[in-house]
Amino acid sequence: MSETAVLAEFVESTTYDDVPPEALAHAKEAIRDYVGVALYGSHHEVGEKISKYTSQYGGNGSVTVFQREAQSAPAAALANGAFGHAIDYDDTFESIVIHPTSPIFAAALAAAEEANTSTRELLVGYIVGCEAAYRVGHSTYPEHYQNGWHSTGTAGSFGATAAAASVFDLSTPQIERALGIVGSASSSLKKNFGTMTKPLHAGHAAQMGIRSALLAQDGFTADPEILEGDIGYSNVMTTDGAYDPEEITGGLGEEWAVRDIGYKPYPSGVITHAAMDAMRTIVRNNDITPDSVENVIVTLEDAASEMLIHAQPDDALQAKFSIEFCLAAVLREGDAGIHEFTDEYVTQQATRDAIAKVTRAFEEDLFGDDFAGYGAIVRVQTSSQEYREEIRYAPGSPNNPVDDDRLRNKFYECATSRLSQSEAESLETSILELEEVSLNKFTDLLR
């Protein structure tokens, strides 16, 4: 059986009862995290521009757009997917560089409302969508990512399609065609990191997932074996025969991808987070102030150099991919959140002065063969002493989890930018009990 067929059959056959309780709990935790950042992103500058576009060109419909008027399913998926990634605060798989929930849950939610189905079907769609993105991503990783593709938009498109196909209850042949359609629509380039187009990647993936599933449902044709073959997606999108089909077919339904999801404690590229947490520890434990610091040296994996492309950021979007800014903000504040990642804060003279104290260094295999390269070593030199802190895994990842209080604080920090405290509390409760809540009640809280 072909890889595409195996994946399609898994998507078609997986039901709520097949998903173990631990995976369901992880899924709801991830959805809470996404909903918070998407609510904030809905009225961020990126969210405003996406909303303007979908309002003008998205078509009429009854599908929820966070904090906006309802629109068509494809338009809602585009908007909500982009909202979730607007400030780069959404979740990430630990073992591969993909932000899964923004494109996948946005597609699953739009499909659920379009199909008028249950929150249980919504949950299953999201979970199998994560599985598809994770497996397609791993089958081409790391060559695909290293070659300049942003996997959130490419592999994420397959995840969004699987999610929508599950919710629409498509047959296996229909799902094969849906995957074939999205194989020609999956795209996004890392060259656009630090611009508004990076969050558009997540929205585009969600929208293409809905489009592909709807077309396949209506009998639209595509190659049913899109992943395999010399000119199939997987070989075209990698180099030197790097595609590994076993990553797609092996162990489906045994190790659930949602368990690999980690949560960002900072609204910046995940590659910056270990360094930021190391700096946070040094500053808080030793009462460090910017005036007392002579210099900061941060050492990261060599692969991080291609993502950290803004040593002197001009705005908040660029700052998300500036290790200098990220450490400067933590040095100034002892932490960094949505209030620091603003254009005004980035351009303050005090921020510029702190940035000037930070020097970056890169080292191949910094921590041996630990995967993903998210670790960092930070050295802070004052006039009298050097402080050193190393963190191997990004905080919030499964190998370095942050406590639930920190995640809940993040949710409320973001959600209460749009909702009252009581509304945010009701929303959190509905997410954590999602399979028992009606879809209308959940979406009413989002609107």
What top-tier CATH class of the largest domain fits best?
A: Mainly Alpha
Q: How many domain modules?
A: 2
Measured by DSSP, the beta-strand proportion falls in 5-15%
Give the N-to-C terminal Cα separation.
43 Å
The level of helicity is 40-55%
**Nearest-integer average pLDDT:** 95
CATH architecture of the largest domain: Orthogonal Bundle
The low-confidence runs, each spanning 5 or more residues with pLDDT under 50, are: none
Name of the CATH homologous superfamily of the largest domain: 2-methylcitrate dehydratase PrpD
| Biggest β-sheet strands, sense, barrel | 4 strands, mixed
| Pattern of helices and strands | HHHHEHHHHHHHHEHEHHHHEEEHHH
Number of strands: 6
Rounded to the nearest angstrom, the radius of gyration is 21 Å
Topology:
Elements: H1 3-13, H2 21-41, H3 45-57, H4 73-85, E1 92-93, H5 101-115, H6 119-139, H7 143-146, H8 151-167, H9 172-183, H10 197-217, H11 233-236, H12 246-249, E2 261-262, H13 273-286, E3 293-301, H14 316-319, H15 323-333, H16 343-347, H17 349-355, E4 358-363, E5 376-382, E6 386-391, H18 404-415, H19 421-432, H20 439-446
Parallel strand pairs: 3-4
Antiparallel strand pairs: 1-2, 3-5, 5-6
Can you give a write-up of this model?
This protein is of the alpha+beta class and 447 residues long. It folds into two domains: 3-262, 2-methylcitrate dehydratase PrpD, CATH 1.10.4100; 270-391, 60s Ribosomal Protein L30, Chain: A, CATH 3.30.1330.120. The chain is 51% helix and 7% strand. The chain has helices at residues 3-13, 21-41, 45-57, 73-85, 101-115, 119-139, 143-146, 151-167, 172-183, 197-217, 233-236, 246-249, 273-286, 316-319, 323-333, 343-347, 349-355, 404-415, 421-432, 439-446; strands spanning 92-93, 261-262, 293-301, 358-363, 376-382, 386-391. A four-stranded mixed sheet has the order 4-3-5-6. The protein is globular. The protein starts with a helix and ends with a helix. The model has no long low-confidence stretch (mean pLDDT 95).
